Amino acid sequence: MHAQAIFELSQEVERLLQLALQNLNTLKTTSFTTQHNNNYFAQPSTGKVAASQFCPRSIQAQQALLQNELRKITQHEMVLAIVGTVKAGKSTTINAIIGTEVLPNRNRPMTALPTLIRHTPGQREPVLHFPYVQPIEKLMEILQTRLQQADSETLTKHLEIDKDMAGLLTRIAEGNSFAKHYLGAQPIFHCLKSLNDLVRLSKALDVPFPFKAYAAIEHVPVIEVEFVHLAGMDETHGQLTLLDTPGPNEAGQPHLQKMLQEQLAQASAVLAVLDYTQLKSVSDEDVRKAILGAGTSVPLYALVNKFDQKDRNSDDEEQIKALISGTLMKGAIDPSHVFPVSSMWGYLANRARHELTLHGKLPPPNEQRWVQDFADAALGRRWRNEDLADAGALRHAAELLWEDSMFEAPVKTVLHAAHANASMYALRSACQKLLNYTQRAEDYLNFRCHGLQIASEQLQQNIAALEDDMNLAASSQQTANTVARNNVKQAIDAMGDFIRRYELQIITHIEDYFRNGMVPEKLTRQALSFGTQRGRDFDARHATLSFDDEPSAQIALHRIRASCEVILTAAQEKMTEELTHLFSYLEVELADTLRNTLKPIECRVAQGLTQAGFRTNISLPVFHVGLLNFNANQAFNELIEEQDIPVARLRRPEGMRGTVARWLNSDDWGWEGYTVMQSRYVISLADVQRRLCQHVAEFLLQLNQNMAAQIEMSVTEGMTAFFDDFSQALDAIRLNLQQSLMARSQNEEAVMILRQQLQQCVRTTRYIHEDTRLLRDDIQTLFTVEQQ
Q: Which residues neighbour 590 within 8 Å (Cβ) at sequence distance 6 or greater?
C-alpha cells in the first residue's frame, strides 16, 4: 500500500475538516444563527415548524458529524454500518461475517444501542468495553425507585417476565450495575441481553431510555475480536469496524428511526440485511428508506438473507439483484453490490470449521444447540450421533455448506476489500461528507447574502407572495388528491378486469386439460422452457381413475398436479409481467399529476426549493413474482377416495362335485361364482377440476383485494408525505426570508459587518469545496490502483 501517499492525503483531509469546523463556529456567531430557530417570529404554531439547516442545533449536528470523520481519519478507521429488521437475521449475519458468535440471537429486538465490533488481530476471545456506563447507572437508579412503587400484577400485564427479565429485575433491586468490561461470549451475551431488556422495562414503566447519551459513536459499547475471515491476512494501514445499528422502530421505540439515520450518516459504508421472504414488507421498506436517506455520502451494499428458502417459482439470483438495485432501491445501489445469501448456513459452516480447527471435533449436540442445527443443514435431518465422529467428513460437509451459503462473494467483495483499504474508505467517506456540507452551506450562504442586498419592502413582498403560494399549495393538495384517487380507481378497476380476464383464461386451459387428458399444445411448447415436456396423463373418456393400490393413485395424482402447475406457471409469468407494467404506468401517472398540479408554484419558487433540498418522489409498492404464486398443492389434498366395491370371483365347490372337478382339471365344469369386497383407490376427475378452479378463483380474489389495499394505502401515504415535504420546503424558504428581513432592520453598519462575515464564509466554503473535490479525485485514483 502507498503508505506515504495515504499519510499525505490524510493530512490534507484533516486540514480541510478543521477548516470546515472553524467555518461552522464562525456561522454560530452571526445574527442569523444566534436567533432561536423555533417560531421566534411569534406566529401561531402550525405543529410543524421548519428549522433552518444552519440554526444552532443543526450546526451542532454538522459539527458532530465532521468531528466523527476527523476521528476516523486520525485512527484510519473504516466503519461499516449494518442495518436490518428484527426478523431479517441481522445478528446471524454479523456472526457469519465475523466468523464466530459474538452477538446473541433471540426472537425479539437485540440492538437497543448501536454496538461497534472491531477487528482486533490476535484477540481470539471477544471482549466488550463499555466505559460510558454512567447514563445506564442513572437509569437503573430511577427504575429501582419506580419498581418499589410498581404493582407486580400491573407490571406483568405490560411486560413479559421471562428468565432474563426476572434476572434483570433482581439485579436492579439489589443495585448491581453494569461493568465496564466483559470477557468471553457468554458474559457479552448477558450484557447485551440486559441492555435490550432495559429498553423494554423502561418502556413498561414509562421511564425515558437515555438514547441521546449514546448518539456519539465513541460512547457506544465496543466488542474487540479477531474476524476469522481476516485472520492471518497482511496487516493494513487502517482499522475495520462493524457498527450494529438498531432497526427502524426496534423494540417499539419509534424515535430509533432518527437515531438510525444519524448512525448511518456517520458510517464509511452501509451494509443492509434484507429478508428474501419479506422484501415487500413494511419493515423492510423502513430499512430501505433509512438507507436511501443516507444519500450518496456512503457506498451501499445489500445482503439478501434467507435465500436458502427460494423455490423454483421464486426470483433467482439475477432477478433479485435487478429487483433490489433497479426497483426497491431506486438505482441507489449497484447490482454487483447485492448478494443473495443464507446467513444461517454461513454462520453454522463458520462455527463448525472453527471448532474443528481448534479441537478436531464438534461439541456434543445435546449441550450446544447450534451443533444440531449444523447437522440438520449439512448432513440432512436423518443424521445420527455417530455421524459426528468423522472429523474429515464433517469438515467436508462444512465446506459444502459454506459454499451453499453463497457467503464467499460478500466476504471477498466487502469484508476483504474493506480490511485492505480501511484508510481509503475513511478518506473517501470524509471527502463525501465535506462535499455534502459545502454544497449545502454555499447555497444557504448565497441565499443569506442575497437577502441582505434586497430592500425591506421587497423582502416583505416576497414573504407575502410565498405565503400565498403556501396557501395555494394547500388547496392544490385537495385537487391533486382527487385526481390521484381517480387514477387509483382506474388502476384498480383495470387490475380487476385484468385478473378476471386471466381467471377465465386459466379456467379455460384447465377445462381443455381435463377434456383431453393433456396440457394444451401451445402451453406444452411454453412448458419446454421449464425443462418439462408432458404427454397424455389419463384417458379423458372416463370420469374417474381407479387403482388397485394407493401408491399408484398417488403417482397418477402427482402427474395431474404437475401438468396443472405447468398451466398455472405459464399464467403466473404472464400476469407478473403485465401487473408490473400496470404499476409502472400508475406511478408515472401520479408523478405527472403532482408535477402538473404544483408546476405554477414550483416555477415561482424553483430557486428556493432547490436550496431547500426538495425533490419530487412518490414511491408505490413494487410488484414481482413473489406476490403471485398460486401454490396449488393444497388443492390436491384428500382427492383419492378409498372405496370397497364388489368383485365377482370363481371357486371350486365343496363336496364330491368339487373333488371330481379337481381330478378332471376342467376349466369349463365344476366352478361356482361368488362375490367379495375389494378396496379400490378412485380419483374423480370432476372433483379435481372443481377443486383446482375453486383454488384459482379464491387466490385471484384475495390477490385483487390485497393489491387494491396496498395501492390505496401507499398512494395515500405517498401523497401526504409529498405535500408535507413541499410545505416544509416552502416554510424553510419563508423562514430564511423572514430572518433576512430581521437582519435588514438593523443599522447599516451592522448589516455591512454581517454581509462581510457571510461573504468570508462563502469564500472559505468555496475554497474547501474545490480542494475537497480535487482531493476526492486523487483518493479515487489511488483507490482504483490499490484494487487492481
A: 484, 487, 618, 620, 715, 718, 719
Q: Tell me the mean pLDDT in the region 414-435.
A: 87
d(CA 419, CA 423): 9
Cα-based distances in Å from 51 to 36, 38, 136, 450? 10, 7, 31, 20
Other CB atoms within a 10 A radius of the CB of residue 493 amount to 11
Local structure of 782: helix, strand or coil: helix
Exposure pattern of 694-724 as b/e (b: 16+ CB <10 Å)?
A: ebbeebbeebbeebbebbeebbeebbeebbe
Nearest Cα to Cα of residue 248 among 258, 238, 240, 262:
258
Backbone angles phi, psi at 415, to 5 degrees: -70, -55
- Burial zone of 238 (CB within 10 Å; 0-12 exposed, 13-18 middle, 19+ buried): buried
pLDDT of residue 446: 80
Q: Which of 95, 112, 113 is nearest to 104 (CA)?
A: 95
Mean pLDDT of the chain, nearest integer: 78
Show me where the domains of the chain are located.
1-75+747-788, 456-635+687-742
**Predicted pLDDT of residue 616:** 39
What CA–CA distance (Å, rounded) separates 89 from 309?
Answer: 13
CB-based contacts of 203: which residues, under 8 Å, 6+ apart? 209, 251, 252, 253
Compute the distance between CA of residue 200 and CA of residue 183 in angstroms, rounded to an integer: 25
> DSSP letter string over 650-708?
EEPPSSHHHHHHHHHT-SSSS-EEEEEEEEEEEEEHHHHHHHHHHHHHHHHHHHHHHHH
* Residue 1 to residue 3: CA distance in whole angstroms: 6
Instruction: Say how many C-beta atoms besides its own lie within 10 A of residue 626's C-beta.
Output: 19
For residue 142, the surrounding DSSP H or E stretch is helix 134-149
**Is residue 345 very low, low, confident or very high in pLDDT (cuts 50, 70, 90)?**
very high
How many angstroms separate the CA atoms of 32 and 58, rounded?
13
All three cell numbers of 215, joined, read 448518539
- The secondary structure of residue 769, as a DSSP letter, is H
* Residue 574: C-alpha distances to residues 323, 498, 579, 628 (Å): 17, 11, 9, 11
Distinct helix (H) and strand (E) counts, the chain? 23, 12
What is the pLDDT averaged over residues 141-158? 80
Closest by CA position to 192, among listed 282, 58, 94, 315: 94
Cell numbers at residue 756, please?
Answer: 462581510
